[in-house]
Amino acid sequence: MTPTTSNNTLASQPLAHYDPEVAQRVHGWLASGQPLAWIPILSQDNFPDTPHETLQSARRHQAAMRWPIHRPEDLLDLPEGVTGWLLPADAEDTDVACGVWGGEVYILGVTDRRTGRAQTLLGERGCAATDRCDDGAQSLV
Question: pTM of the prediction?
């Protein structure tokens, strides 16, 4: 989403980088006012200086790393350059990824680089097997 400092909400701003189907779903979540959560994807792409073993260990607690999103503007407070899962706060699984690069919010789907299959937080994750995640459409790193 294009960042803004005016009183306009980000939900009404055009997305600069997005998967249209995924972005439409996120716009619906934001428009409904329901609280969301963002969970960092624990991969070497996101945390290149973190040892592989540390990331594997941390993955067991990944769901506990929920970052609350109460307003669309909260997305701009996400850590720069880190891809994470975005989902309604009461949900357990999602296929929506989100990150901030250069002050812009990216809403994406995640696919396994090896198989091309869509990934979810709880589903078969290529990034868990390979420590690399891909947005399926563009390079994030």
Answer: 0.70
Rounded distance, CA 96 to CA 108, Å?
A: 6
Residue 103 CB neighbour total at 10 angstroms? 10
Contact (Cβ atoms closer than 8 angstroms) between residue 51 and residue 44 = no
d(CA 43, CA 49): 10
Mean pLDDT (whole number) for 22-44:
90
From the number of C-beta atoms within 10 Å of its C-beta (0-12, 13-18, 19+), residue 97 rates as: buried
Query: Does the pLDDT at position 65 exceed 50?
Result: yes
Residue 10 has pLDDT above 70, yes or no: no
User: Kind and range of the H or E element at 18?
Assistant: strand 17-18
Residue 36 pLDDT = 96
Residue carrying structure tokens 């701003």? 13
Please choose, from the candidates 80, 30, 37, the residue with its C-alpha nearest in 3D space to the C-alpha of residue 62: 37
